[in-house]
């Protein structure tokens, strides 16, 4: 069975000192590096948040406060601080992440009008990133997923992987949650288990 590792958004803005730092984010990087070292993956894919500066998910572009919610093109949108703006240091992959074996990079969130948590498609399910086609072209059947953040981009990437027919495993030690609300991470795990994601210790 051919397998791929999908590493979600291990970027400076989501790590320690970043604009949208996920608590404990830096702790997962050695674990992810070890996975790549100790396993034979046919493909190793990085997803990368890559927002234009005027992206509508940013509170600053809507005259809102971080943490508020609006309806953006028909779906609820959490208001985030400016983060992962294309071409900036914050959007770059963290320097400690070993990229020697990476075979493919998927950029997401490039459309000003629609956010994209999942590595597969935007939040409105209008535009695909090409990740599904890439994995199927390479005859991948099983995907293992790690990265940031558990309760947003990792969760939606996992759910879309299942929906696209892949056997999907989440490495619990390779992810951390934003936890805007204290139980968000726990709730995300429960939702993924219900939808057929296998959670590996």
UniProtKB/TrEMBL annotation:
NCBIfam families documented for this protein: PRK11609.1
Protein's recorded name: Nicotinamidase
A Pfam short name: Isochorismatase
Alphabetical list of CDD domains matching this protein: nicotinamidase
UniProt domain Isochorismatase-like: residue ranges: 4-199
A GO BP annotation: pyridine nucleotide biosynthetic process
Stated family: Belongs to the isochorismatase family.
Keyword flag Cytoplasm: no
Superkingdom of origin organism: Bacteria
EC number(s) on file: 3.5.1.19
Keyword Metal-binding: yes
Species of origin: Chryseobacterium formosense
Keywords assigned: Hydrolase, Metal-binding, Pyridine nucleotide biosynthesis
Any one GO molecular function term: metal ion binding
Pathway membership: Cofactor biosynthesis; nicotinate biosynthesis; nicotinate from nicotinamide: step 1/1
């Amino acid at each position: 069975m051919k397998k791929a590792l999908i590493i979600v958004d291990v970027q400076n803005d989501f790590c320690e000192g970043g604009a949208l730092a996920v608590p404990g984010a830096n702790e997962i990087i050695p674990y992810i590096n070890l996975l790549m070292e100790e396993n034979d993956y046919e493909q190793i894919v990085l997803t990368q948040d890559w927002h234009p500066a005027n992206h509508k998910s940013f509170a600053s572009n809507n005259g809102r406060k971080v943490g508020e919610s609006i309806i953006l093109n028909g779906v609820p949108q959490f208001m985030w601080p400016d983060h992962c703006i294309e071409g900036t240091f914050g959007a770059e992959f963290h320097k400690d992440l070993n990229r020697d074996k990476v075979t493919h990079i998927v950029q997401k969130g490039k459309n000003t009008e629609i956010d994209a948590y999942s590595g597969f498609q935007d939040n409105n399910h209008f535009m695909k990133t090409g990740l599904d086609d890439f994995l199927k072209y390479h005859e991948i059947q099983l995907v293992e997923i790690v990265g940031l953040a558990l309760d947003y981009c990792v969760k939606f990437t996992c759910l879309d992987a299942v929906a696209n027919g892949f056997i999907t495993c989440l490495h619990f030690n390779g992810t951390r949650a934003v936890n805007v609300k204290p139980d968000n991470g726990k709730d995300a795990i429960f939702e993924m288990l219900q939808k057929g994601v296998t959670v590996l210790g």
